[in-house]
Amino acid sequence: MTPSPPVLVDGLAHRYGSRQALAGITFQVEAGEIFGLLGPNGSGKTTLFRILSTLMPPGAGRALIFGFDVAAQPADVRRRIGVVFQSPALDGHLTVAENLRHHARLQGLGGAQRRQRVDEALAALGLAERADDAVKTLSGGLRRRVDLARGLLHDPSLLILDEPSTGLDPGARRQLWQHLDTVRGRRPLTILLTSHFMEEGDRCQRVAILDAGRLVALDTPAALRKTVGGSVVTVRGEEDGDGGEALAAAIRKRFQLETQVLDGSVRIAHPEGATLVPRLAAAFPGRLASVSVQSPTLEDVFIQRTGHGFHMASPAEAGQ
Amino acid sequence: MSHAVQGADAPAPAPRPGLIGPTLGLLQREVIRFVRQRSRLFSALGQPVLFWLLLGSGFGASFTPPGAPPGTGYMTWVFPGILVLVLLFTAVFSTISIIEDRQAGFLQAVLVAPVPRLAIVLGKVLGGTVLAVAQGALLLLAAPLAGIPLTPAAVGLALVAMVGAALALTSVGVCMAWRMESTQGFHMVMNLLLLPMWLLSGAFFPLEGAPSWMRLGMEMNPLTYGVAALRRALSWSTPAVLDALPPLGVSLGVTALFAAAALGTAVLLVRARPGTAP
After folding, report:
1. pTM tops 0.80
2. What angle do CA A188, A189, A190 make, to 5 degrees?
3. B140 to B47, B128, B156: CA distances (angstroms)
4. Which residues of B touch A8 (CB under 8 A)?
5. Average of per-residue pLDDT across A125-129
6. In terms of Cα–Cα distance, which of B107, B105, B91 is closest to B226?
7. Inter-chain residue contact B115 with A98, CB threshold 8 Å
8. B241 and B68 in contact (C-beta within 8 Å)?
9. What is the ipTM of this complex?
10. Residue B180 C-alpha, separation from nearest chain A C-alpha, in angstroms
């Protein structure tokens, strides 16, 4: 008897009219993980979020939360998940405490238990002093924090967050992650979050990368970066009007390397990029505007697996 | 995975919420929101009162209610109809917040909470009904100014009729707003469907004078019976007006059926989860 995983997605597909938003996705989230669902806008991650949070049944395939089917047993799923939406689900006319009390009621918490949970949530997220402020007077970062408190009120086993960093400045983003860590330190909690910030994937224990409704990568961030190679060399040529294609062809011919052209730059995954730099400079005197060597990022993983840039999804894919 | 056990080993789930707690919570929120948005009080009560004063004064000279004793002006006759207009405005506009809540993301959090869908509908409908009846009762206090004496029987019956009509109208509002993406669409339905429904309910002019095709439409209009019940409550002392109305039992019965049907439709709509909208 193995316990059911927090999230099990099996052959999940969904279409809106003629547009295929999810094209058969399978993965599993283990208990206690922070799992990131990464992808550009239109990659299908919002559709997946809506299905997992029981807002919408899937077109095909199934999704189980702790073994309960999101389509057939939504009530059982809802009692075990906390959901934090892209825009905080708070009523601006109500105070922080009123909002939390309201949602505690919706979660079936009554009387003394409701007061206790609301007070705990306010204290845990450092909101006690703002309890009586109207939500509409709060900053975006504070609102997000109140919304996180709302999502955790009923002590869910799985927390699902949709684009939690969107609209937050870097400071507020850092704070949000600190708060997530604090919460996880206190109790067992599995977290699944979506993001279109690839660098945010590095904060997750495992990530799934989506593109155009398909899963293109699924592993730990470190393992994924390793698949790209030791380093990524980016070469930008002097303006020659062809967007770098000629330079890429020349590099391929001269060094027998695989290249990708993106945004006018030539990208080369190479185990020891630093050794390539002097050879490139010697081979193409006067033709190079800049050469840089970096450790591969999750964005490089995305580019390598899809052949296109992260924020360059075609309009059809992005049209959601 | 084939050996996986549902929910095994997972920490205990949150309790299963009942019907009453969440319903009261949602109702309370409606009331708090309304009280904190002063402009809503004016638009829901002020506009009908303005209509009442202008229409009453304007038509006063040219209109004599059927069978009414001399001295009963239009201002007195139209008063129950104005009360229904207050109910209509407050009840229906309270449900516009469904669209705003959906756009703001607030509604989604309600939908993923483990509350019975019935509680979501009841909270909204009862919230709108409480607000509508409270405003109606406020205007009812002005009845003596229109020459309508407020006896306990009149007030009691008027409140019953107002609750029935408000329940029905709020439920209609929920049905309208549930699938609607923008508030503009809501205003359009309000203007093209609900205001004509009020105009043809015997609130604005009596059934007797209307051409027969229109009269048929008015008799089919469920709101006609809410207006009739209210008019009966407030015209207790003028039998001539009462003779022209459907019987009290029919008026209250049709109003109750209207409310039940609209509420039932709203529950069905909310239970059906969207499958296609992005």
Report:
1. yes
2. 135
3. 15, 18, 11
4. 1, 4
5. 89
6. B91
7. no
8. yes
9. 0.82
10. 16
